[in-house]
# Entry
Amino acid sequence: MARLRTVVYGLLMLFVTAGSIQADVFHTTLDHGLTVLIEENHANPIVSVQVFVRTGSIYEQEFLGSGLSHFFEHIISGGTTSNRTEEESRAILETIGNNTNAYTTVDHTAYYIHTTSQHWPTALNLLADWMLNSQITEKEFLREKGVVQRELEQGLDNPLRQLFQLTRETRFKVHPARYPVIGYKTLVQQVSRDDLLTYYRRMYTPNNMILVVVGDVDTQDALDRIRLAFSSGERRSLPALSLPQEPPQVSMRTAVKEMEISQAHMNLAFRTVPLTHPDLYPLDVLSYILSRGESSRLVKRLKHDQQLVYRIRSGSFTPHYAPGSLSVWATLEPEQVEAAKAEILDELYRLRDDLVSPAELLRAKKQKIAEHVFGRQSVQERARHLGIDMLSTHDPNFGDTYVAHIQQVTAESIREVARRYLHEDALSLTIVRPKPKPSEREIATSPVETETHVMQKRVLPNGLTLLLERNPALPIVNVQAYLMGGVRVETPETNGLTRLMAHLLLKGTPYRSAHDIATAFDAMGGSIEANSGNNSFFVKAACLAEDLPKALDIFADVIMRPTFPQAEVDKTRHLMIAALRRQQDDWRAELRNLFHATHFSTSPYRLRPAGRAAALAQLKRVDVAAFHQRYAVPNNMVLAIVGDIDTKRTVALVERAFTGFQPRDITFPNIAADPPPTHTRREVKRTRKQVAAIQVGFAGTTIDNVKDRYAMLILDAVMSGIGFPGGWLHTELRGQQLVYEVHAFNWLGLEPGYFAVMAATQPQQAQRVVDLILKNVDKAKAGDIDDAELERAKQLAVISTQINEQTNDQRASAAALDELYGLGIAFRTQEAEQLAKVTKADVQRVARAYLNHPTIVITTPTP
# Structure
């Protein structure tokens, strides 16, 4: 797997003592060759079990280009084994949370289950069974072959996926990394069940696997359970794989692809080094200096100063199996490609001549610290990093080596690698750009305590509600402010005003420019963002604990005293309108927008949080300032701070930072509720994408209707597994090879939302998919749920909520929104108890009450 080292490790040793966050990783190899890594983490009752198999698209031998590794991943994950049927595995998964998935890359395939510590032995046994005892039934083979082909077709509509595949094909002419992981359609169609069996028996052997367990476990107990679970595995000889060496690149390469999209995407990739080369370290720091943070060189120059691009990023990819690349990729207007390319190259070539400043070097290193520490919050990410390090370097503690070498990076070493690798002969330039526009008729569309992990509430004299939770596990803090707003306070003429104002909060105060704000957080290795949704807007920041006073001062400044410079208003409005056009390239956004416009009539939710181009174009600076004056007041704000804090000191910091923040009377507009639906509404939109997307939705409930929302969450679990594949819809629609993906979800608002099912399918299957969705809705209304299904659904709902409340960011957001919306900070602590009380009658009741008179929307390339 091509690896972006710049998002993996922090410079821990420079700024934070190793003992403050390091944990012992137990590492052993069992007799049959299985590599085992175990790390105890008792911060939360969560465990992640992950299996990494050393096989991916580059190791497919005579099957190169067929996507065999990816195809097999679809079948083995949850499939029939010699011990269980697919249905039995699915039933067990639902009892332990169903938080499972798998993925395939160039060099490995990974399978994982995240669950509670109570259920982790079951997760281990399931994964071991899948790895060692897969049967690859004819039924599952044929079904997943159809699913893989649908996924392949869907990827053809994704411009970034196409860009990076085009880059691989351009960079690699001999090495098998040039082949798409998913395979070529004609070769995928030729794959037989016997091919998969051959591949399975050849590559899925314990001595080709790494098992990682991280979380609330005892190491010796875990090791004993692992030995037992994998005891039936046998060591087998692996093929002697010798990958061809990619010959030197002697001249610039260029490739262009046209798609039905609205904006262009460009990638400049300079050939560099593999993972084990010492130049890895200065290249990684160089990439951070280029684009990490809003004040970084490329972001400031091309996005903010010259406004040539909408997005720009860089990264140093250093895989272990082939030469890597230093890449810069950008999203921009087609007519700006040449100008942007010239500016990017100019900025890169400057690094060959000039030394980076000490401040830039220090900032890049501190950014790496923060990323490393923040990445350790969840057991899932920690397990993934351990597995990939072991796979790539045969050393789970490679991070220590990496950090030690990063400390030695100097401005001179950065200039040396720039001179060595940043030259035109090593460049591969790839561009995905829009096709010429068709005629309009062709596209016509029909009290504060120091106790840990306890959220406490205090209301300050100015009305600001302060929530504090101490979590000293890692030296990091998240600060989040949520305020009522969003589309609920907008009209069609002002749609997008909340988001415009939110983005502009970070663009200057009387004391700090936009550059000052961005530079300050970049230097801290932190982050700050502002955005809006349907019901509220927010400012969020993250920093190391030692930087909280400085971060909080800036945080309060941008909320209380934004100046909304006219130049920034114009620039931000331009970027927002461009982002709206970019939504046209995303079938999910297109489907969501069509559904909201069709389903809601008078409700404010018919409007889009991102706004509409016509409304944004008319908004003035005075509108932004007036909106801020009205809604950015302390008595409309909940401030949540979660992390390694001293709570008493933090209260004092907040009071100091928000000095002068005065309350004001605030009134909200009267909301016109939608009348209950009386008939089926249907809208079909013609699209030039290859996938047909469907959403079938029904009038829903509100955030504060706790009894009904819990019952509808269980209904979601029964029908589709709460975000992960499962339930009736997955069984029937995936079982018949009708969809690539299908999910039900309960969309809640302060006004009534909706319950919906979303699916992606082939155009000719769209109506059949709609019919089967409605059939399963009728099944729910009939109460056709057995007791075992209900219990699995409740267990799934409880586990999914626990897994989604691990990090400081997750806990701060949940608490702030619950308090802002009137549920209170105790709401989440009562979820498990309330979910356990949901009965079959409750689920049938909400199905009968809400699932009537559907809104059906379809985006499809055919009428």
